[in-house]
């Protein structure tokens, strides 16, 4: 029987052992990415993030693991449970700290229950719940997990208490086998096709060109410009930026072909940028910013350049980030994303079980309604 151990820093686990537990197609669970966040000052206890990774060991062999954090708030998670915390407070109970299995600041679906095989993966839900119970924490949460992780939760007994929540994101997929951007546009109805061409033309007419560079092609100026755009966006919304310039440099060095920057330039000077990461068959858009405002610039930098990149590189999917119904008109369709939640207090667990079921039904109704606004012709859908 594997033994569960807690690890207060990912550096306690050899990178080779950690990365042997996943197929390497999702960059966000790579040891280099998660350890980089910890080493370069992106995660701090005073911001609510304390690393607390769970590993299952058979002797000296790591057979399963979950990237975990003790959370003192619900910031940077993108699965919203503030109402749950308020309900606890109204009853004089502490919701925080809680335990979260996720990739910090990244609402990206991917492996969460990492394991050398399905048998080891199925042991993780019970191990997580046992740790939370022994530690006196309020709850455990696993956000944006993939199908393999979901299968491990689904294999749990009905009374295990892992509640399922769902939400919507908007993803672009090339299931039709489009060869280039014109073929993609050709699948759309006239109105949406015309709108996208007009948006792209406005950017070109403003004298803006977009340069795409990977981490090993990016200069120090490129990386500094991208980080500056990121800081500006957070300042515009009054939020506190977490990613450091040191982390951006780390990505360029440790994950050189997975870091992809879309840098929009005018008169030879970068005026906007989007930071993406490349996976096995998916491009993930994460951050954007601009020092100048031009019509269509956001859509060109964050959406159309990403689609172009996927078509050139043969990637099947583009996930440009959370939320945004405006993405539908640009070819990104609504898909469900998952999270699982284990609540220690049986009274709250019982009440939230029904709440989650109602939420899932509402999300599915919304997905079906939004799908009717897809921009593609009926014969091209």
Descriptive overview:
The protein is α+β, with helices and mostly antiparallel strands and 381 residues long. The chain has two domains: 3-167 and 336-371, Gcn5-related N-acetyltransferase (GNAT) (Aminopeptidase), CATH 3.40.630.30; 176-315, Gcn5-related N-acetyltransferase (GNAT) (Aminopeptidase, 3-Layer(aba) Sandwich). The protein is 36% helix and 25% strand. The protein has twelve helices and 15 strands. It has helices spanning 15-19, 31-39, 82-90, 118-121, 124-135, 147-154, 181-186, 190-205, 220-236, 245-254, 297-313, 346-371, and strands at 3-7, 49-51, 53-58, 61-66, 68-71, 98-101, 114-115, 139-143, 162-173, 208-214, 259-266, 269-278, 282-290, 317-319, 333-343. The strands form two sheets. It has an eleven-stranded mixed β-sheet. α11 (297-313) links the parallel β13 (282-290) and β14 (317-319). It starts with a strand and ends in a 10-residue tail after the last helix. The model has no long low-confidence stretch (mean pLDDT 96).
């Amino acid at each position: 029987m594997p033994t569960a151990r807690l690890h207060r820093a990912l550096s306690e686990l050899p990178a080779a052992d950690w990365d042997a537990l996943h197929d390497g197609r999702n960059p966000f669970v790579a040891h280099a990415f998660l350890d980089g966040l910890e080493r370069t000052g992106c995660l701090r206890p005073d911001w609510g993030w304390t690393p607390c990774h769970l590993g299952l060991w058979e002797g000296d062999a790591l057979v399963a693991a979950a990237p975990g954090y003790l959370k003192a708030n619900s910031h940077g998670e993108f699965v919203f449970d503030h109402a749950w915390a308020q309900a606890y407070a109204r009853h004089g109970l502490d919701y925080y700290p809680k335990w979260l299995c996720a990739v910090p600041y990244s609402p990206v679906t991917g492996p969460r229950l990492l394991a050398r095989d399905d048998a080891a993966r199925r042991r993780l839900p019970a191990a997580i719940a046992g740790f939370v119970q022994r530690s006196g924490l309020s709850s455990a949460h696993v956000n944006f997990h993939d199908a393999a992780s979901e299968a491990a939760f689904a294999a749990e007994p009905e009374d295990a208490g892992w509640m399922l929540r769902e939400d919507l994101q908007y993803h672009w997929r090339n299931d039709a086998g489009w060869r280039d951007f014109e073929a993609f546009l050709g699948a759309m109805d006239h109105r949406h096709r015309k709108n996208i061409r007009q948006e792209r033309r406005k950017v070109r007419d403003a004298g803006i060109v977009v340069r795409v560079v990977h981490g090993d092609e990016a200069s120090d100026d490129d990386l500094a410009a991208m980080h500056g755009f990121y800081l500006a966006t957070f300042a515009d919304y009054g939020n506190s930026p977490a990613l450091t310039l040191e982390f951006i440099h780390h990505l360029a060095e440790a994950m050189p072909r997975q870091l992809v920057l879309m840098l929009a330039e005018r008169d030879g000077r970068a005026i906007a940028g989007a930071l993406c990461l490349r996976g096995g068959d998916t491009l993930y858009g994460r951050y954007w910013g601009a020092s100048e405002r031009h019509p269509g610039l956001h859509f060109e930098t964050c959406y159309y350049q990403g689609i172009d990149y996927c078509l050139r590189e043969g990637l099947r999917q583009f996930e440009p980030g959370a939320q945004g119904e405006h993405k539908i008109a640009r070819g990104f369709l609504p898909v469900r994303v998952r999270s699982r939640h284990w609540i220690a207090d049986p009274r709250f667990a019982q009440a939230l079980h029904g709440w989650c079921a109602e939420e899932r039904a509402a999300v599915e109704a919304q997905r079906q309604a939004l799908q009717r606004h897809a921009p593609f012709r009926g014969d091209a859908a």
